[in-house]
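Please review this one.

:::
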Amino acid sequence: MPDIILYPRDTVMRALEVMHRYGAHLLPVVEERHGEVLGHVTLEELRRLGNTLPLARMAEILTARAALATEGIAAPRPVRVAFVAEEQGSCSTWVH
């Protein structure tokens, strides 16, 4: 079986498709050029986000999570996070 990873440009919807296809509950988000692991996302986390933010990218999710941790905000209470669309950059191709 091939390594199953997500990239920062993948959306919540795409991540859920990959997790469903391979029966995964936790996947790493890996930087495309150097293969550095940037973080992990869980099936539970993505299911919560999938209803309201299906097109949010993994980079946005990891950035929001890091910002909340830096601010000392814990997860027990609901937190509203606004995602800003990133600029269109160079086009890359990858296989899941």
User: Anything to note?
Assistant: The chain has a mean pLDDT of 80. Residues 32 and 94 are 9 Å apart (CA to CA). The radius of gyration is 13 Å.
